[in-house]
Amino acid sequence: MVSIGSGAKRKVTDVKLSRYACYLVVQNGDPTKPVIASGQTYFAIQTRRQELADNAAFQQLKEDEKRLFLRNELREHNKILVDTAQKAGIEATYDFAAFQNHGYKGLYGGLDAKGIHQRKGLKRNQKILDHMGSSELAANLFRATQTEDKIRRDKIKGKTKANQTHFNVGKKVRETIKDLGGTMPEDLPKVEKSADTLRKELNKLSAEGEENE
Q1: Which of 22-31, 133-142, 177-186 has the lowest mean pLDDT?
Q2: What are the residue ranges spanned by the domains of the chain?
Q3: φ and ψ of 182, to 5 deg
């Protein structure tokens, strides 16, 4: 019951509006009325807040996609690098491990794979490449591709020369990062979610999206 003047009252019906209905009423109402002005301010703030949240989620999605792309590219180029290194005279497994460490040492300021693992605070079963962000993966991809290209182009033979070439290329990539004012790779934070976990999650989302179409 509401008062309508002279002490009289009249029964009125309350209407419960959905959020979207409230939005439409407020956006099309008279902003000179305090309740409408407050409502418009509220929805403006909430809209902007959602935009920022969506943008953050989108940026994260872009980073995740870049990580997966670069990780896959690095995996494939490492296979090519193995083949090229073998042709240069690096055949035993322990020799190739030493060869890889020379590249890491050049790029990471003297740290080998074990040193990088410790510096990043990774667990024993975690692979360093699977917990790198896109910038760090890109630096390692560049190291791998340029080393493979130089060994093949210069027809380098022998373990010593191949190792030194990998170290020199890694060091040159490091110097380029420094010249550009970038963060040294060993100082970049590890990514908690592994590339394999991320791949499974994105594949699941993709499958669910296809089911909903």
Answers
A1: 22-31
A2: 66-212
A3: -85, 175
